[in-house]
Amino acid sequence: MSAYALLRSTAAEQAAALAAGDVSSRELTSAHLERISAVDGAVGAFLDVDADKALAAADAADAARAEGAVPHELAGVPVAVKDIVVTRGQVTTAASRILEGWVPPYDATLVTNLRRAHMPILGKTNLDEFAMGGSTEHSAFGLTRNPWDLERIPGGSSGGSAAAVGAFEAPLAVGTDTGGSIRQPAAVTGTVGVKPTYGTVSRFGVIAMASSLDTPGPMARTVLDTALLHDVIASHDPRDSTSLADAPRGMAEVVRAARSGRDLTGLRVGVIAELDGGEGYQPDVVRSFHEALSLLEAAGASVETVSLPHLEYALDAYYLIMPAEASSNLARYDGMRYGLRVEPATGPVTAETVMAATRGAGFGDEVKRRIILGTHVLSAGYYDAYYGSAQKVRTLVQRDFAAAWQRADVLVSPTAPVTAYRFGEKDDPLAMYALDVTTIPANLAGVPGMSLPSGLSEDGLPVGFQVLAPQRADDRLYRVGAVLEAQLEESWGGHLLARAPELEVN
């Protein structure tokens, strides 16, 4: 297999080639490192690449295979990790100056799982600083660009992970999803992203933004690849108090069975009325969504419209709860214990002045904006009116979902109202926040969600289709996604990314 074909093969195909002895993990990892070297200067997906560590892990995977001690199907297949996930011995910054150069002494649990599976980590991917943004324009270390059009955003905050997968720099990547930060980047880059049920993937070692919402998850180019990575990183972890003891596993088996049968007979699909187009939705997005619905019906699913009436308040509630939790979590960056320390240029050097100087220099504008908002809504006299009311809305949204599951097995909507926009087009923060309207309900409710590509807009940009399922029913996402993906690929004559423009290499 040529290097070109190897890079464009799926992670499952790469795993099969490794198992057959057609390629070694060192060769596979080297090919991806060479691809990163060739195109990442234009894409900007990675903040740190440690080739020596990646190749050492690849050699360990090859040795384990030679000894017959392969722990997982993906052993030897490389992966990229969002730089908000702690990696021992490798720089972890959350794309913030306040953590610039920080090398953690421990691994996040999900990274431990990757290492146990003998999956070489190619590097750490770019994001909006502390995962606060939807475009990866808010990184302290530069932009990440969409491989489909380098003048457009790759989504956020996991834009680096999505771009790495979409640019064939990595077959698999890990992201985090607090309000859509896996699903929205997947939608605008023509890739697949899954936000698992909250508690399925441990948050231990994932730098916290909003603890009741943050959810690590897999990103890849196909539903099967995403499922394979899901099965690696999902695990119970006593170090995470929110970790589920019965985390859903076995997703790859679900996908393979679904693609084989392509039968959704008896499945009830609910179209979320409040997210089915309207003001702010691009017509191409709505068209692609309804074309995909017709394919689900052709596979035997029944489709009806379902209302979640309190979703009209979900966006406002989210942008009170999230910054409130973020302001509390980011209080630890005080210039005293680790990370950046800046002393005041004039005046006394006290804990207060060092903290003010450090936070002023270390945090970017978007992070400061959310800290200020979050601190305000938690302050005396405003807590009940803002934060308390937002939590009540969250409960109402959760009840809406509970009622909807009585009528539907899965709920669907467009993943994002628009396709990838050009850099600088959404410089108004409120305009950017409004684009989260389709994804944040899943985070408020703690339910799993998937985005997979459903087609292209008239100007040739990917459109995403979102599937939501009840808590712990992640298998339904993979079943629906696998069948829809198979139907779409049949109509396209291959994978959507095959229609992406070629990136010029150095």
UniProtKB/TrEMBL annotation:
Catalytic activity from the UniProt record: L-glutamyl-tRNA(Gln) + L-glutamine + ATP + H2O = L-glutaminyl-tRNA(Gln) + L-glutamate + ADP + phosphate + H(+)
InterPro entries in UniProt: Amidase, Amidase_CS, Amidase_dom, AS_sf, GatA
Keywords linked to the UniProt accession: ATP-binding, Ligase, Nucleotide-binding, Protein biosynthesis, Transferase
One CC-aspect GO term: glutamyl-tRNA(Gln) amidotransferase complex
Annotated Amidase domain residues: 27-477
Superkingdom assignment: Bacteria
GO biological process, one term: translation
SUPFAM superfamilies, sorted: Amidase signature (AS) enzymes (SSF75304)
Cross-referenced Gene3D superfamilies: Amidase signature (AS) domain
EC number: 6.3.5.7
GO molecular-function terms, A-Z: ATP binding; glutaminyl-tRNA synthase (glutamine-hydrolyzing) activity; transferase activity
Record has Transferase as a keyword: yes
Active-site residues, Swiss-Prot/TrEMBL: K82 (charge relay system), S157 (charge relay system), S181 (acyl-ester intermediate)
Oligomer status and interactors: Heterotrimer of A, B and C subunits.
Family designation: Belongs to the amidase family. GatA subfamily.
Function recorded in the entry: Allows the formation of correctly charged Gln-tRNA(Gln) through the transamidation of misacylated Glu-tRNA(Gln) in organisms which lack glutaminyl-tRNA synthetase. The reaction takes place in the presence of glutamine and ATP through an activated gamma-phospho-Glu-tRNA(Gln).
Protein name: Glutamyl-tRNA(Gln) amidotransferase subunit A
Native source organism of the sequence: Actinomyces howellii
